[in-house]
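Notes taken during the Thursday session

The instructor put the following on the board and asked us to keep it in front of us for the whole hour. The protein is O-fucosyltransferase family protein. We were told not to look anything up and to reason only from what is written here. First, the residues (499 in total):
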Amino acid sequence: MEEGKFVFEDSEEKNSHSSHVGGMKSKSEMVKNLVMFGGWLKGEKVMKGLLQKKVGDEDDDDDDHGMMMKSSSRSWHLELCTLRVLCVVLVWTMVVVEYNKGISYDFIHNLSAIQAYSSPPPRIYENNGYLMVSSNGGLNQMRSGICDMVVIARYMNVTLIVPELDNTSFWNDRSQFQDIFDVDYFITSLRDEVQILKELPPQQKQKIQSESLFSMPPISWSNITYYYQVILPLIKKYEVVHFTKTDARLANNGIPEEVQKLRCRVNYEAMRFASPLQKLAKKLVTILKQRGPYMSLHLRYEMDMIAFSGCNEGCDQQEIDELTKMRYAYPWWKEKEIDSEKKRRDGLCPLTPEETALILTALDIDSDIQVRKETLLEASELEPFQNHSNQMAALDYYVSIESDIFVPTYGGNMAKLVEGHRRYLGFRKTIDPDRKVLVELMEQYKNGTLKWEEFSRLVKEAHSNRVGNPTARSVIPGKPKLEDYFYTNPQECLPPLHY
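Then, after some discussion, the predicted structure tokens were revealed:
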């Protein structure tokens, strides 16, 4: 097991395509740097420089940005085009050579991702109407729902209005889309697939003000046919339809491959964090990488989670009463009466801090150095985000996808999305605790049935194939809540040789 540092991510679970930090300096890295950091633009300047002597005598005109080459010579244009073609061929020849030598999927993915950085041409289609959505839940729950809404809008040929984020949930964060995500990049990078507007056009805005806005929650885990046959006629009738919920409104499986691939493009490329968040997150990762490998631990044992889950391991009676009261205070937390002990035995409870420390020790992960983002940054740097739990969760998300090892202690939305994102970035190591097995092993260790050496061996054995490695997504017909979540294992977007 690879050793690493701990990053305790304890912000509320709310659920960018970031640049890879570190790595070998090789020919492939040189090619990547050439493409990612303006190598092509510099190459073109070099080509112009090589030709400048030839055309300089013909035309010495300058403009405000420096010398511009002008020539009516057809041979000059031909040479320039030829050099450009040769440069492109050279770059991609190097890519193919390095790929055949065993270059990682991570590198190939980064090369393909640059396509998103240039604005694609807008898609021209007959607009069937407008879709407004109110996202519900924490950051990552909203994130996956928004990705689905983009896909749904695209395949119904409707215009999507930039989603409204949930401001009424437990976390009481007033952040809106543009506070967390780069809204202009989101709109522009997807314009070849779907039209996205920041707000309704004046005519439609006036229409919903004078008439009632048609609102509804679409049926959970629906396929594309449902949106064609049920939702599209409603949009054509009312012109504007408002979805009151976005979470889990599209099925995991049984979806056309092109739809699944678009879900990936939206999630892993278009949903880039807003510049202030992106900048600070990159700084955090840089500081950590300079100190060596690090592990991101998503320790999900806060009041809201244990109240919601009904798990009270390690709590006294007063704390249990407070947690129960909190559970009843939120009407959208549907499950009220919960058998904590049974739920824990079934592996449905988050690991406690004590249990987490025990398991990590059994896995031989070094715990000598423990850091938090608050100790790595100046207070003034975190202050703009401190009272915005969704923005703090965005920082956690970025640091987690870039870590050498990611360990979630509960299978919530952040854990699911980070695991999937790490798969997409080249199957980065993610230790997914088997809580059902662990509870049984921990009970045996605590009562003396298992000695430490045997306990450690069994913990390692139970997790040998739970490290984010390639695997097929489970399908359970008729029980979508029990099958693997698409965003945890987006296999349609991963290298086909693994499946």
